[in-house]
Design goal:
Layout: H1 15-19, E1 32-33, H2 52-61, E2 68-69, H3 91-100, H4 102-108, H5 117-161, H6 168-172, H7 176-187, H8 191-196, H9 202-213, H10 248-264, H11 271-317, H12 323-358, H13 364-370, H14 378-400
Helix pairs in contact: 5-11, 5-12, 5-14, 7-9, 10-14, 11-12
Length: 403
Amino acid sequence: MLGELPPIVELPANVAGALRPVPLFVHTAGLYEGASAPKHHLRSDGNAAGTGDMGSDAAAGGAPAMPRRVNAAPPQLSDGQGEIRAAAAPQSETRGVSGRLQSSFALTGHSMEALTEQDVDVLLKVLETRYEKYLSAKQQTTERYLTRIETDVDRFLAAHYGEGAAAPSSRFGGGVASFIKNTLVPQIPSPQRVRGGGGTSPSAEKAVSDDNTRCCDSRTDGLPTLQASSYRANAIPFNYLDVRPMNMETIAGNLVVLRHCLAECFAPENTVQKSLLGPIVRGVWDQSLRSLQKSARELLEVAQQNVWPPLEYIFLRQRRGDAAVGRERRAKYDRIVAALQDDLKYLHTIHEMDREVIEGQIQARQAAEEGLSDYVPVSGLVLSRLHRLENEHRTVLEFWKTR
């Protein structure tokens, strides 16, 4: 018995590694866990990168480091997709939201589960700030092109119908009178027809026809003919209702010119169409409205691609007690997006209307049958300026006619 020796047992080279408990599941967070790295140091495979003392010990001696016991609650690691779950949200609820918003991850470029409600509030605040800047630019652009339209109309009248302009017969040939007689009534609607949306009585149409025909024929109402008329800007004094203007002949000549321009607006291949409507419409769109349209489109894309996915994710993840806050956030977003969509629809609509006017695809009779509209194209603003000037000059003459 004494001569027998016990069997020789070969000890493992790494005793600590051999005695370490083997986890049942690969992604289970147990009591024995390596030193947890910050969240942004986690690799996409779910394992922590070697940092801290473990990495230094391994580099120095080549021996594996001992695992360190973690007393705190185990961190919730990501699944195989490398996503960090939110600790505050229940695991089952978070998994359901992640499945519904899988497409949103591609939009943001990172996991949205790290988002907080404060992040969404910051996004909404930035969106509101940019929208306020857009509204300010929109107002400035509108004021600028409205002023430009009035200035360009006045410049056109002075250049083509001023005292130094060429004779009307050389500008329009010999067909001015026949054109006004044959096309003025069926094409140019009276204000009553536009407001009512329907046609006028035959007697009213005859009166309008007779009144405009006398623009070029011999007049019996005291107005000069078109050949004898010229346009002078700012002919109406500010106190014309209190004191009779001394330049009634100039006002009468301006009225004849304005009525002639209104009659010429929708005639194909005429001076008003080529030198007034076309240049103004193209200039306003190229220098003002296209940039405004681009700004609205870009801001709408930012809202839909960068703000909506996080907002929807937080809204679906919220508990019932926070539903009111979520609805308030979505109301802010919906208000901005709806306003931008309305602006883009408006700009697209008036662009098509201007294109039809410039290309001669729309007639004044068609515009009269449509009645009043919420959409006012640039060409409509040009005609509105002419109508307003015509109404001012006609009011002065009618007011002092019997006084």
